[in-house]
Design the sequence.
């Protein structure tokens, strides 16, 4: 896969692709439908995705709590798994935000990327103050000789599948249901940082991964698998939250990996959530916490092995 951060002065091999448009936060099964539509319309063209970094919501509403399902690297891996060969990850900044819908079609899609085909969801909006809509995209695509596939919302019995719905499921403690809509387990990826080493003193060393710009799922204990930098997947149990028993104030992922004793500091790890075991709670003593961790670890092993 190749990733480009500008639509101007692209090498010729990066032009003329069939391009799926959108934010693709989470790369859920609805997003996958848009990507497949781009490929089906022009199977002979390179398959690409045009997306933005940061997410436009984060640009316009920086005061909002962290909400991202997937950051750049995790999103790229999920798109690669769908067969995407090129990502145009365009910087969403003041200059870009002021492009009109007409300019986006003419300068970015036609002149910059030279797209052969675009695919998008039925509610795709673009350009300054969302001045561009499907009607405008249809007109400009026809004028520029660009094929257009507008993909209806993918829905199930509970309604349309969306990133917003997946966020809500994770915040309510339903990672299994979120996984059904994502098409894979929900993962939090980041560098392993040094913690206070309290877990090591009671035989439960943890890999501490900051949430960063990720959405914070329901606070509590989960069965997990951690994908290491070398591709190995290791089962474990993790707490997501502030660790009230030890006076923590900043939420993070603390993952204890079963039968694992290697040094992971500084390495990037992706922690996939399987089952929500219990809510985060404050214990009267460190001893009580240790006893509960033992029970949580046994529950996580049983869930993952079952």
Sequence:
């Amino acid at each position: 896969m190749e990733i480009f951060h500008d639509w101007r002065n692209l090498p010729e091999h990066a032009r003329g692709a069939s391009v799926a448009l959108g934010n693709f936060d989470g790369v859920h099964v609805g997003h996958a439908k848009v990507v497949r539509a781009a490929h089906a319309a022009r199977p002979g063209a390179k398959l690409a995705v045009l997306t933005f970094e940061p997410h436009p919501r984060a640009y316009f509403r920086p005061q909002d709590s962290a909400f991202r399902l997937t950051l750049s690297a995790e999103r790229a891996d999920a798109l690669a798994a769908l067969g995407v060969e090129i990502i145009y990850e365009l910087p969403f900044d003041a200059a870009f935000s002021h492009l009109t819908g007409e300019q986006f079609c003419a300068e970015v899609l036609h002149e910059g990327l030279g797209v052969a085909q675009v695919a998008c969801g039925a509610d795709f909006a673009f350009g300054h103050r969302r001045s561009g809509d499907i009607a405008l995209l249809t007109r400009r695509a026809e004028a520029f000789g660009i094929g257009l596939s507008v993909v209806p919302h993918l829905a199930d019995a509970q309604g349309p599948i969306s990133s917003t719905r997946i966020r809500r499921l994770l915040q309510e403690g339903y990672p299994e249901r979120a996984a059904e809509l994502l098409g894979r387990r929900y993962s939090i990826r980041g560098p392993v940082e040094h913690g206070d080493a309290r877990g090591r003193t009671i035989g439960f060393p943890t890999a501490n991964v900051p949430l960063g710009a990720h959405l914070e799922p329901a606070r509590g204990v989960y069965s997990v698998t951690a994908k290491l930098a070398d591709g190995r997947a290791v089962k474990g149990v993790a707490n997501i939250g502030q660790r009230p028993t030890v006076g923590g104030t900043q939420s993070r992922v603390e993952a204890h990996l079963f039968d694992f004793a290697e040094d992971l500091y500084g390495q990037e790890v992706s922690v996939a959530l399987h089952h929500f075991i219990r809510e985060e709670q404050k214990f009267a003593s460190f001893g009580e916490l240790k006893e509960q961790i033992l029970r949580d670890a046994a529950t996580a092993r049983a869930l993952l092995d079952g």
The longest helix spans residues 286-305. The CA atoms of residues 188 and 271 lie 5 Å apart. The chain has a mean pLDDT of 93.
